[in-house]
Structure formats: structure tokens, C-alpha cells
């Protein structure tokens, strides 16, 4: 059996670098690792400022990522607080709307009572209410006549 064609078996729980997972045999992994090592060594020898720039860029990226993570956490907490506040305000709004409907009904009844008691400001309201009641009575009489009673 050819040793180059035998795949490397990696246990699921053991730690393996991404290169081991990407390459199927150990020879390729070693080859790629050596090339990366040589590249980094050459960069360090011939262009140390390039390596320093890379390190600076990575540290800046790391700082920005940590800042973004903090901001994200703060925003999610803020979202939770605002959603709770929104639900409370929604309940308050519904409650106030119900109270408003009750008060409007009470106002309507008060006007009707004052019209019945003879208040001249609400005479038209009383006439309209009486006309509406008369129409309802006429409608009921017509339905009784149609049903044959």
C-alpha cells in the first residue's frame, strides 16, 4: 500500500489545526507548514517593518473587533430594555384608550340626561335621539308585520 494515499485519521475530539483538517495527509501538512515558516522567516529577515505593520494591523483589528463586540452587547441589552419598555407603554396605551372610550360614553350619556332634563343647549341631541328610537321602533313593527304576527 502506498503511504502517500493513506488519509490521516483525526479523532473528532482531539485538537487539530485547520491545516490538518484541510489536507488529507501529513506530508502535505508538513510541506505547507515549512513553506509558511520560511515565508515568515524571510519576511522577518528582509522586511521587518512589514512584519511590524502586519502585527500593528492585527492588533488594530483585534481592538476594533473587541469594540464591536462590546457595542453589540450594549445594543442587545438596550434592545431588550426598549422592548420591555415598549410592551409596558403598549399596555398603558390600551388601558388609556379603554378609559377614553368609557369617558366618551359617559359624556354622551350626560349630554342625553341634560337634554332630557330640559337643558336648551342639548335640545337637538334629544330630538335626534328620539328620532333614532322611533326609527328603531318602526323597523321592529315592520319586521313583526312581515313575519305575520
Rounded radius of gyration (Å):
42 Å
Q: Total number of helical segments?
A: 4
H/E topology pattern: HHHH
> What structural category arises from helix and sheet content?
mainly alpha
How many β strands by DSSP? Answer: 0
- Give a short account of the largest sheet: none
Uncertain stretches? 1-15
- State the helicity in percent bands: over 70%
Shape: rod-shaped
Give the termini distance in whole angstroms: 106 Å
User: Beta-strand level of the residues, as a percent range?
Assistant: under 5%
The average pLDDT is: 79
Give an overview of the whole structure.
With 149 residues, this protein is an all-alpha fold. Helix content is 81%, strand content 0%. Helix 3 crosses helix 4. The longest helix has 69 residues, at 48-116. It starts with 17 loop residues before the first helix and ends with a helix.
In a few lines, what is going on in this structure?
This protein has 149 residues and is mainly alpha-helical.
Detail the topology: elements first, then pairings.
Blueprint: H1 18-22, H2 26-46, H3 48-116, H4 123-147
Helix pairs in contact: 2-3, 3-4
Amino acid at each position: 500500500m502506498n503511504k502517500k494515499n493513506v488519509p490521516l485519521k483525526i479523532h473528532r475530539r482531539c485538537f487539530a489545526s485547520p491545516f490538518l483538517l484541510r489536507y488529507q495527509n501529513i506530508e502535505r501538512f508538513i510541506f505547507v507548514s515549512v513553506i509558511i515558516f520560511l515565508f515568515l522567516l524571510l519576511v522577518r529577515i528582509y522586511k521587518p517593518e512589514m512584519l511590524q505593520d502586519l502585527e500593528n494591523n492585527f492588533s488594530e483589528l483585534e481592538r476594533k473587533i473587541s469594540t464591536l463586540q462590546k457595542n453589540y452587547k450594549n445594543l442587545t441589552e438596550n434592545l431588550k430594555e426598549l422592548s420591555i419598555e415598549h410592551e409596558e407603554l403598549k399596555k398603558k396605551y390600551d388601558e388609556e384608550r379603554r378609559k377614553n372610550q368609557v369617558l366618551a360614553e359617559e359624556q354622551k350619556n350626560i349630554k342625553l340626561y341634560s337634554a332630557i332634563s330640559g337643558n336648551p343647549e342639548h335640545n337637538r341631541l334629544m330630538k335626534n335621539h328620539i328620532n333614532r328610537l322611533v326609527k328603531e321602533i318602526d323597523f321592529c313593527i315592520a319586521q313583526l308585520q312581515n313575519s305575520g304576527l
